[in-house]
Design brief:
- By secondary structure, the protein is mainly alpha-helical.
- It contains one helix and no strands.
- The termini are far apart.
Length: 97
């Protein structure tokens, strides 16, 4: 089974078959670089999630503000419509007499 190992699994052999530890240093450097890239990616993803959450909160706040303004406009329109209609009927009744 030992003959079936992939080159990446055999850490103590160098690129040219040397057993001098230079491959270990380069493997260690590669692993550190990969770790640094992963940490950078995780930080970037966390910042993206935070920004997305802030954007969603902003959208929700604007939707609430729009609903409040819509409700206020509906109440004002309804009040003006009812008062105008009542005033119209009162004026029409006073003209008949």
């Amino acid at each position: 089974m030992e003959g079936h190992l992939l080159p990446a699994e055999n850490n103590d052999v160098g690129v040219e078959g040397q057993k001098d530890g230079s491959c270990l240093r380069s493997t260690s450097d590669v692993l550190h670089n990969i770790r640094d890239l992963l940490e950078t990616r995780l930080r970037s993803d966390a910042q993206l999630r935070l920004q997305t959450h802030k954007n969603q909160q902003s959208v929700i706040e604007w939707l609430i503000a729009a609903a409040v303004i819509d409700r206020i406009c509906f109440i004002v329109f309804s009040f003006i419509f009812v008062v105008g209609t009542a005033l119209l009927f009162v004026l029409a009744m006073s003209r008949e007499h």
